[in-house]
Amino acid sequence: xxxxxxxxxGALLEAYPQLEQTLYEISPMFKKLSNPILRKTVARVxxxxxxAEVGGIPPVDLINRLREAAGFSPFETDExxxxxxxMPQPAWFDEAFVVKHFDADAVIAKGQNPMDDILKQCDCLQxxxxxxxxxxxxxxxxxxxxxxxxxxxxxxxxxxxxxxxxSTTD
Length: 170
Fold this sequence. Notes:
Blueprint: H1 9-15, H2 19-26, H3 36-40, H4 42-45, H5 48-55, H6 59-70, E1 98-103, H7 104-109, H8 115-123, E2 130-134, H9 140-148, E3 151-156, E4 159-164
Parallel strand pairs: 1-2
Antiparallel strand pairs: 2-4, 3-4
C-alpha cells in the first residue's frame, strides 16, 4: 500500500504497525491513537490529510516522514495538495449567541467517544444559536460530518463554533 493523503490512519497502521511510533514522534497529540475507542472509530475513517490538519502539520511533512519511515521515497512539495490555513471570523459569529458549551477533551480523557454527544448538542440548536466545542485539536472528521448535516463551523484555537447553516456562509 502506498502512503498518500487519502490513506486512512487505521489502514496505515494495519499495513505498517511500526509507523505508530513515528506518528507519536511527529506530534504528541497523536498519542491519542493509543485510546482503543478512538483507534476503533476515528482512526478507521480519518485520512492522513485530516490527521495533518488536526495536528497542524504541513501535509507534505507528515506524508514524507511516514514514507521515509516505511522505506518509500518522498513526495515533492507540489505533488501534495495543500489546504489554506486560518479562516477569518465569519459574519454569523457573535459571542452573544453562544448558548451551549461542550468540552470534548473531558469526554476523551474518560476513554469515551464524544461524537454522539456533540451531534445531540448540535441537534438542539435553534437558528442563530451557537455551540462552542472545546477540544485540544481541530476535529476535522466531526467538522466534515457537521457540514454534511447542514451546520457551519468556525475554528479558533481550541474552540470550534457550530451553528445551523442559514443564508450566510462560513
